[in-house]
Amino acid sequence: MNRIKSILFVISTINGLCLGNPIIIRPATLEDLNEISCLITNAYEETFKPCYAQLFTESDLNKNIDINDFISKKITYQINAAQEFITKQSNQEEYGFLIAYTIKSEKAQKLIGCCRFKKNSTNNIHIYLLSINKKFQRHGIGTNLLRHTIKTFNTSTCTLCVLRNNDIAHTFYQKFGFVQKGTRALDHQTGELLTDPMAPITLVEYSFVVTQ
Fold first, then answer.
1. By C-alpha distance, which of 210, 155, 211, 145 is closest to 6?
2. What is the tens place of the pLDDT at every residue in 157-190?
3. Domains, the chain, ordered by start
4. Chain-centroid distance, C-alpha 21
5. Of 20-24, 83-87, 92-96, 112-116, which range is least confident?
6. Helix (H) / strand (E) containing 74
7. What are phi and psi of 72, to 5 degrees?
8. Residues 186, 166: contact at Cβ < 8 Å?
9. pLDDT band at 12, cuts 50/70/90?
10. Is 26 helix (H, G, I), strand (E, B) or coil?
């Protein structure tokens, strides 16, 4: 792919997780889909499920909706979206799906991060999902993946949404330079974004000004 190039960097981490091993960031292909599916599933079970469970409890949605069924549907949606974006990316459409993986040897590679995004207007790129394996967080992988994502298309702004109680994500994006622009509501049945401020599941909208 000409528009999205692979990059390589080396990180050193504690406990020997990937000490001195190179990290590759490149466009995903459909051959990566199984590993991407595993990464998405783990992210939803370990990170997003506790956030949604808290919001469901606070709003009494848990009385009518099974959290496990809800998360299962979200995972299925994300995996299907990953396949769609990878396919459109390979067709040179303005869709992107980047992955990060560590190389321990020529035959030992491990996918540790992914980012799904789209150029949704002339001047804006929107990120729909950024996920890093928990064991490899806080070592610059998410930051490098985010930087490469933002530079993929020639745009002036980058936007994304974060669940209001996902404190780790808020800290990460604010440290990167994203600024809060407002809130959106998530329809727990359709998954569509709404403007209802009283909805039980709300997300914080962030925007980042891209410098060339």
1. 145
2. 999 999 999 999 999 999 999 999 998 877 666 6
3. 7-209 (3.40.630.30)
4. 23
5. 20-24
6. helix 67-90
7. -60, -40
8. no
9. very low
10. strand
